[in-house]
């Protein structure tokens, strides 16, 4: 059988639906098992997420977080467990999606798309690590600096973060940075399928840089250091996308030349 042929035989629509159901079932089971484990450790996970704030407030007695609704803390732990389970089980879910899609692809297409599938969670976790270890300490110190002791005729301003609002802010920033780090995957895929070229990326570089800084300004605290902490890695990822795109275009040109030579011969 030629290398470019699809391996699996044609399947009826019902068989495809059964296969899709099985893949979704395995993904759901993996998510639920991971969720149960994460919920057991939800307090530890939440403690990990609040550690940057605890470090920023270290040495100050009487600091604590609050919840104003009886169910707020419970549902916060539920959210912590769910999102953590989603992160941890993502490789399993992605594998199930791949196992459903791969039989319908040519072998050449499978080899082309598999590296992008592997790179996606790695880049996402890199973005999450950047925001946790770099942005959070800077951001929390910036926001805490707005506290005021008060005085004659004025009331003090003291930070008393709510558990659910803190979690929402943390998850928003983690998702924003994780998605931002998918930039090279997206651009490389667009180059591979021929929707854009590296010449287009290079010629539109100034507009891309402007868009990156606008994105960083929106999704980071309003200080230049935090904004640059996201913008500079994204600029590097954009330039890396151009390099990887050139490699893809060079391989495509070599393949097309070899096919042309084979057909003419």
Description:
By secondary structure, this protein is an all-alpha fold. It contains nine helices and no strands. The chain has helices at residues 13-40, 42-56, 72-101, 107-144, 163-180, 183-192, 198-203, 205-219, 224-264. The longest helix is centred in the last third of the chain and has 41 residues, at 224-264. The chain is flat. The two termini are 22 Å apart. The model has no long low-confidence stretch (mean pLDDT 83).
> Biggest sheet, in brief?
none
Could you state the oligomeric state of the chains shown? single chain
Number of strands: 0
User: Roughly what fraction of the amino acids lie in strands?
Assistant: under 5%
Low-pLDDT regions: none
Mean pLDDT equals 83
Q: Give the overall form.
A: flat
Binned, the helix content reads over 70%
**Sequence of secondary-structure elements:** HHHHHHHHH
The chain-level structural class is mainly alpha
Round the Cα radius of gyration to an integer and report it.
24 Å
Instruction: Specify the number of helices.
Output: 9
Alpha carbon gap, first and last residue:
22 Å
Give the arrangement of secondary structure elements.
Layout: H1 13-40, H2 42-56, H3 72-101, H4 107-144, H5 163-180, H6 183-192, H7 198-203, H8 205-219, H9 224-264
Helix pairs in contact: 1-3, 2-3, 2-4, 3-5, 4-5, 4-9, 6-9, 8-9
Quick tags:
265 residues, mainly alpha
In short:
This protein has 265 residues and is an all-alpha fold. Helices cover 76% and strands 0% of the residues. Helix 2 packs across helix 4, helix 3 packs parallel to helix 5 and helix 4 crosses helix 5.
